[in-house]
Specification:
The structure is a single chain. The chain is an alpha/beta fold. It has 2 domains: 205 residues, 3-Layer(aba) Sandwich (D-Maltodextrin-Binding Protein, domain 2); 98 residues, 3-Layer(aba) Sandwich (D-Maltodextrin-Binding Protein, domain 2). It is built from 12 helices and 10 strands. The strands form 2 sheets. It has a 5-stranded mixed β-sheet with strand order 2-1-3-10-4, with helices on both faces. Strand 6, helix 6 and strand 7 form a beta-alpha-beta unit.
Length: 320
């Protein structure tokens, strides 16, 4: 494959590209194979699209998606060297950076919230009917210190709710609907497709949209790698960014391109996929928007010191 791509380079006049960097590269690909840890969630659809359409191969890369248990686990695997790039919610990456556990770079943005994507919901048998009812209630989140509870605390506190009285219960998304039905919890913060699924399967209704007010359009997740790996392989990471960008372009402009990816890789059934609220797949990471996440973490004591997110961004390399 490398030889063939080198030949293509010679045909288009870029004969000084000995390793076949693919279309638009500015130098040889240092690390042709990349292991990418991810979760089967809506956020990662552009990467699967790029793999399916051969966009990474066009750039001279062999990208292997590897499903991991959680975003924090993906970050741990990046630090240990088991994988090269991790999909993670931003709090996981920023917490590792702030603790000095790793020096990370945000390679690309993945997903930013839009209305209806991340929602505090409750079932009909719950005493949680309105935002002001949240104090004193048990509310499930995927993990403490995540975008789920940070965003919910920000929105509820802006509405005068005493968030210190809320009991946050860590729980995987699939368990939240049954837990609400059985009254083990009073509500749950769910992201799509679980907003649609809990409504469909358990009659859950929205109590508050977490992507509203102070957290409107907040960045949720991205792709992270060790700074030393990205610095040692600049052409590889530039190629990854370009291939991923093509996947982003596809799913942003054409919902019909997105739904088969959701069905095949995210395991959303074909009848539910058209109903799922899709948020935003940003074309590039924005330091101001990402800084809001780090500032929320500081506000709610997840991290001790202010974190300058702009220093973590891996700026895209301009192609030829």
């Amino acid at each position: 494959m490398v030889t063939a791509l080198s030949g293509c380079g010679a045909l288009d006049g870029s004969s000084n590209n000995p390793s076949g960097g693919g279309s638009g590269t500015t130098g040889a690909i240092e690390k042709p194979k990349l292991k990418v840890g991810l979760l089967p969630v809506v956020d990662v659809a552009p990467l699967y699209q790029a793999v399916e359409k051969g966009y990474f191969k066009q750039e001279g890369l062999d990208v292997e998606p590897i499903v991991v248990a959680s975003g924090p686990k993906a970050v741990e695997s990046v630090i240990s060297g088991e994988i090269d790039i991790a999909f993670t919610s931003y709090p996981g990456a920023f917490l590792a950076q702030s603790k000095g556990a790793a020096n990370l770079k945000i390679v690309a943005d993945a997903y930013a919230a839009r209305p209806g994507h991340l929602v505090l919901v409750a079932t009909a048998n719950s005493p949680l009917k309105r935002p002001e009812d949240a104090a004193g209630k048990k509310i499930a989140v995927t993990s403490k210190g995540s975008i789920s509870d940070l965003g919910t605390m920000s929105v509820l506190s802006s509405q005068g709710v005493d968030i210190k009285q809320i009991e946050w219960v860590p729980m995987p998304f699939p368990d939240m609907g049954p837990a609400m039905k059985n009254r083990n919890i009073d509500g749950a913060v769910v992201a799509e497709p679980w907003v649609t699924r809990t409504a469909k399967e358990h009659g859950a209704v929205p109590i508050v949209d977490v992507s509203s007010g102070p957290t409107a359009n907040i960045s949720m997740s991205g792709w992270a790698a060790l700074d030393k790996l990205a610095s040692a392989n600049p052409n590889t990471f530039a190629a990854f960014q370009r291939g991923l960008a093509k996947g982003v372009s596809d799913v942003k402009k054409d919902r019909t391109a997105l739904e088969p990816i959701l069905t095949k890789f995210v395991k959303i059934d074909a009848t539910t996929a058209p109903l799922v609220t899709i948020a935003d797949y940003p074309e590039r990471a924005d330091a101001v928007r990402l800084q809001r996440v780090a500032d929320l973490m500081k506000e709610f004591d997840v991290i001790k010191d202010k974190l300058d997110v702009s220093k973590m961004l891996l700026e895209p390399t301009t192609s030829k």
